[in-house]
Amino acid sequence: MISRIDLRGEPLPEGGALRDLLPRAEFDVEAALEKVRPLCEDVRHRGTAALIEAAARFDGVRLERVRVPGAALTAALAALDPEVRAALEESIRRARLVHRAQRRSPHTTRVVPGGSVTEKWVPVERVGLYAPGGRSVYPSSVIMNVVPAQEAGVESIALASPAQREFDGLPHPTILAACALLGVDEVYAAGGASAVAMFAYGTTGPDGCAPVNMVTGPGNIWVAAAKRYFTGRIGIDAEAGPTEIAILADATADPVHVAADLISQAEHDPLAAAVLVTDSAELADAVDKELDPQVAATKHIDDRVVPALSGRQSATVLVDSVEDGLRIVNAYGAEHLEIQTADATAVAERVRNAGAVFVGPYAPVSLGDYCAGSNHVLPTGGCACHSSGLSVQSFLRGIHIVDYDRDALAEVAHHVVTLAEAEDLPAHGAAIKARFEWKVPGK
After folding, report:
1. Catalytic annotation on 336?
2. How far is C-alpha 30 from the chain's CA centre?
3. What are phi and psi of 265, to 5 degrees?
4. pLDDT per residue over 87-143, tens digit each?
5. How far apart are CA 264 and CA 309, in angstroms?
């Protein structure tokens, strides 16, 4: 079901050559960009009418309005299964604990007497958050986007999720209930690239959505392409691709756990990546044997799990040692990385590239998806080598406040003038000289 890549017996290559040996899903955002461009521009020119037309075309729903009435949010929360509500509330509580600790305070550095630089952190004014609504319903993604934005101090939060035919054109009721629990009352039944365009351009009228400064949240390739289209006009978190799990395991790992965790990510999408990296051929064989009965016992077998596990993006990678395995997972840069080895904590400390690291047999990715307190909106496609997951920091901007008095400027003025003239920018130097009866030092 899952292919093998045997890298034993030869020295591992370096850099890009090593990355090229590893499995990865095809995810051509650039090609999708040309298809979303007319959808985005349609929203720009026709606003709500374009959103209603897109819902009819892509979601099979004829909407009367795009903004979700407040009464629908209240009703969804009232009808929510009590156990689901309790689980969502606990997820919110733990996420707040972690994200509240990420808040940043202003810091002032006294550079010289009379001269200081203060860095203050200012939240983005308005954000648009996206909650997918295709193959599955993701109230957890509502939590993972809303909580860090709220803890950062964002004043205006709007959320969009696709209209659902079986719910009279509203987003899924569990999405609406999660919004109600979090106090988010500006919710739109809009999906895909059209939702991103709504946030970027804004719309007018009774259902109008004011434009936002930033859009975050996972989605399909059309959402990723729309984010790329609007980058520069708005801030984005990332161009999220298919989900990924990599597991670095040795002979001490339990094959039942490993197989279950690979399947847990494979059920998201047929392009989901499930990668096992191990120095134990015996473990690899045992995991293969476990996959068959566990897959047979799960849901979404033919449309998601089997295509994901058997696709080019998934594989078992055999290596000579855990040390080589570390090189592999650092080259791969997984969205989710589990460490199931002897002394897993020490191994995890040496990971450089991963969206999130899950240590030992009792920290599976599923825990992080819902109730660890960590954020599950994470970099995919190898972007963990340069990008981070969603956090409070994602919604903050650092602003430097420069405060120098006359003496502090005078002390460094000749250096500023010298550097300005070295860069052939004499007006920069003149702006300094204008403040003093200028004399060249030493003359």
Report:
1. yes
2. 19
3. -85, -30
4. 999 999 999 999 999 999 999 999 999 999 999 999 999 999 999 986 678 999 999
5. 11
pLDDT digits (tens, 9 = 90+) for 330-360: 999 999 999 999 999 999 999 999 999 999 9
Q: Give yes or no for a contact between 275 and 332, defined as CB atoms under 8 angstroms apart.
A: yes
Q: Is the pLDDT of residue 164 over 50?
A: yes
Given a contact cutoff of 8 angstroms between Cβ atoms, the answer to whether 267 and 242 are in contact is: no
Query: Could you tell me how far CA 255 lies from the centroid of its own chain?
Result: 29
Q: Which of 336, 411, 415, 428 is catalytic?
A: 336
Residue 83 pLDDT: 98
pLDDT at residue 440 is higher than 70: no
Query: What radius of gyration, in Å, describes the C-alpha atoms of the chain?
Result: 26
Burial of 65 (0-12, 13-18, 19+ CB in 10 A): middle
State residue 442's pLDDT score: 47
Catalytic residue among 257, 335, 338, 376: 335
- The strand order across the sheet containing 156-161 reads 187-189, 156-161, 126-130, 214-216, 235-236
